[in-house]
Amino acid sequence: MRSSTASLRSSSWSALSPEGFGLARVFGITALALVLTLSSASVSFEPGSAALAEPLTDSPVKARVSPVVAVLNKLAVKGRAPKTGYDRSLFGDGWGDIGYCDTRNYILKRDLTNITWRSGENCMVATGVLRDPYTGKTINFVRGVSTSLKVQIDHVVAVSDAWQKGAQQWSGGKRIQFYNDPLNLLAVDGPTNSAKGDSDAASWLPPNKAFRCPYVARQVAVKAKYGLWVTSAEKGAIASILSTCPAQQLPK
Fold first, then answer.
1. How far is residue 85 from each of residues 78, 90, 163, 230, measured CA to CA in Å?
2. Helices 212-226 and 232-242 meet at what angle, rounded to 10?
3. For residue 38, what pLDDT is reported?
């Protein structure tokens, strides 16, 4: 059988003219190329195949999420409560003490440079230089009735804002702690601080855009520490700022 089959093939090919043999060869090569193309297409367009649109790549890298955003997302989101019953004195009778210093001078000592002390004192700041984080300008601080207010100590999370977002339920001791917590305090330009008032991040941000990420990060840290909530608009404003600085860390 094998001998007769081989003979048949031999006789078939020998019966072809040179032109016929050439055409057969061309058709054979073309058919082979077509088969290979169809095979490749069936692999490329097989349902679920990664080769469908683009070559295989490694697993996609997850977008980097700011650690501050992670904490922000854990804060409760509620509406602002009424300001009914609010009074500054509910947070203590002025500044408390941190060690041997009152809180105001403790923050001035921390945030100013080139400090001199009032004669006979090692806590009362007489003069100093502030690189104001809210405006970016340099302020020469001089203690005095008409000059001290050029530098004020700001509650980054305003006291009234805290009252409307959870502090109404606090004990007196916790309110005093909040009022004097260095985490929530910054030495800043007086007029700019006055313009801020009790605004949250949805309605006020520092004019110095370079400081906006650290500013909202500090607000998130304070609100997380004290269990204060944020409004939806406030959360959106903070998230928008933090999207520009994914490496921003929470202050401690």
1. 19, 9, 9, 20
2. 130
3. 40
The residue whose two tokens read 């502030």 is 130
Residue 75's nearest CA partner among 248, 241, 231 is 231
Q: Are 56 and 48 in contact (CB under 8 A)?
A: no
pTM of the model: 0.75
> Which of 216, 217, 219, 240 lies closest to 229, judged by CA?
219
Specify which residues 153 forms β-bridges with: 187
The 8-class DSSP code of residue 170 comes to: S
Q: State how far the Cα of 184 lies from the Cα of 153, in Å rounded to an integer.
A: 10
Q: Provide the residue count of the chain.
A: 252
Identify which of 237, 222, 245 has the alpha carbon closest to the alpha carbon of residue 75: 222
d(CA 25, CA 39): 21
- Domain range summary for the chain, segments of one domain joined by +: 2-44, 67-242
Which residues touch 247 (CB under 8 Å, ≥6 apart)? 64, 66
Q: Which two tokens stand for residue 216?
A: 């909202």
pLDDT tens for each residue of 50-100: 333 444 444 454 566 789 999 999 999 999 999 999 999 999 999 999 999
- Reference 230, options 81, 76, 86, 69; nearest CA is 76
Check residue 36 and report its DSSP letter: H
Note the pLDDT tens digit of each residue in 187-197. Answer: 999 999 999 99
